[in-house]
Design brief:
The chain is an alpha/beta fold. 22% of the residues lie in helices and 13% in strands. The protein starts with 7 loop residues before the first strand and ends in an 18-residue tail after the last strand.
């Protein structure tokens, strides 16, 4: 593998979380999986170390895709056990120092993110299915961005193309067919582009990420992130 470039970069906080990849990638933690060049790296533990480590590896390896993996815990009484698959519908950035009022996230910084409900449902259905072996699925919104007529838009952009346009369930249908997921998993798309953008192309207020805002009160002379004496 050529150092300094990869297709997929797998990031974790520390090396034990990458141990299962060692038999595949070797001690160097990089190599081909099929036709894909994969590198696995430990970015560091904690927000600051992880951010700096991830930024360094992204700069040096220039991956086409980066995947963050890791371990997590669960509250007592949650009913979750080791090996259970949890699909988050809302992800929130948390920090002990920030919760105690000893530090704060820089503004504006996204500290909460709502996952796509349709995608989460597709993942759940795939995990719960009894399908044998491996299956690949396309999971996409049912409509094109902007509500354009798919066939008309294609013909306008490619007037001389001899491409056969298959029937679609609606004029503004997506160019990506998720029919396989519907047939084998029973999945149905529940969101389209209008759930994320207004007709003017703006993000609806309900979809805007929660961002950190600088507090007006004094931190008692301590620099953000520094513990109390």
């Amino acid at each position: 593998m050529v150092h300094g470039a990869c297709d997929v970069l797998v990031l974790a906080a520390f090396h034990p979380e990458l141990a299962s990849l060692r038999p595949v990638l070797g001690d160097a933690m990089e190599g081909p999986i099929g036709r894909v060049l994969v590198s696995a790296r430990a970015a560091g533990i904690g927000l600051s170390a992880a951010a700096a480590g991830a930024a360094t590896y992204l700069r040096d390896l220039r991956p086409r895709v980066a995947v963050a993996i890791g371990t997590c815990g669960a509250y007592v009484g949650s009913g979750l056990g080791i090996g259970d698959v949890v699909i988050a519908r809302r992800i929130r950035l948390a920090d002990v120092g920030t919760a105690q009022g000893l530090s704060e996230f820089p503004a504006p910084m996204s500290i909460a993110l709502d996952a796509d409900a349709s995608l989460a449902d597709a993942i759940r259905l795939a995990v719960e299915s009894d399908l044998p072996g491996h299956e690949a699925f396309f999971i996409a919104a049912p409509d094109t961005t902007g509500g354009l007529d798919l066939h008309a838009a294609w013909r306008a952009a490619n007037p001389d193309a001899a491409t056969e346009l298959r029937p679609v369930p609606r004029p503004d249908a997506s160019g990506i067919d998720s029919g396989k997921a519907q047939r084998l998993l029973g999945w149905q798309a529940t969101r389209g582009w209008r759930d994320y953008l207004t007709s003017a192309g703006e993000t609806p207020l309900r979809q805007r990420p929660v961002v950190a805002r600088q507090r007006r009160r004094s931190l008692g002379g301590r620099a953000p992130g520094c513990p109390a004496e």
